[in-house]
């Protein structure tokens, strides 16, 4: 297995994660019984550093920030997948930083989220760790 293929796989998984997250993070199921909580998050305003906001604003803002970083990670992984072995070998800080960041995402997903997020983040982290490791190897 080559690092370039693992980066391309990770990139595709990241795009799927991006789409699922972006379309789903604002959805709730009536069976959860959180309707009144969500309504309060949307309707109770407070002033923060000169802006009038709700907790829903923060929730949505942070959700979209996550989406932006998932898409950026997908683009970065795709670009890494198009680089030569020698070029990747000269970029250990970038390759390992990306891999380690998704180990952290996996741990956070395990702690705070659910099965789909855990599976995606774990698969992405695994691809990125293996790719970073293979990138350091000689041909």
Task: Report on this structure.
By secondary structure, this protein is mainly alpha-helical. It has a domain at 3-27 and 68-136. Helix content is 76%, strand content 4%. It contains 6 helices and 2 strands, in the order H-H-E-E-H-H-H-H. The protein has helices at 3-24, 35-43, 55-81, 85-89, 92-112, 115-136; strands spanning 46-48, 51-53. Strands 1-2 form a two-stranded antiparallel ribbon. Strand 1 (46-48) and strand 2 (51-53) form a beta hairpin. Helix 1 packs antiparallel against helix 6. The longest helix is centred in the middle third of the chain and has 27 residues, at 55-81. It is elongated and about 55 Å long.
Q: How many H/I helical runs?
A: 6
Distance between the termini: 12 Å
In terms of quaternary structure, the protein is single chain
The radius of gyration is: 18 Å
Overall form: elongated
Order of helical and strand elements: HHEEHHHH
Structural class: mainly alpha
Low-confidence stretches: none
Strand order of the largest sheet: 1-2
Helix percent band: over 70%
- Number of distinct beta strands: 2
Average pLDDT, rounded to a whole number, is 96
| Biggest pleated-sheet summary | 2 strands, antiparallel
Beta fraction of the residues?
under 5%
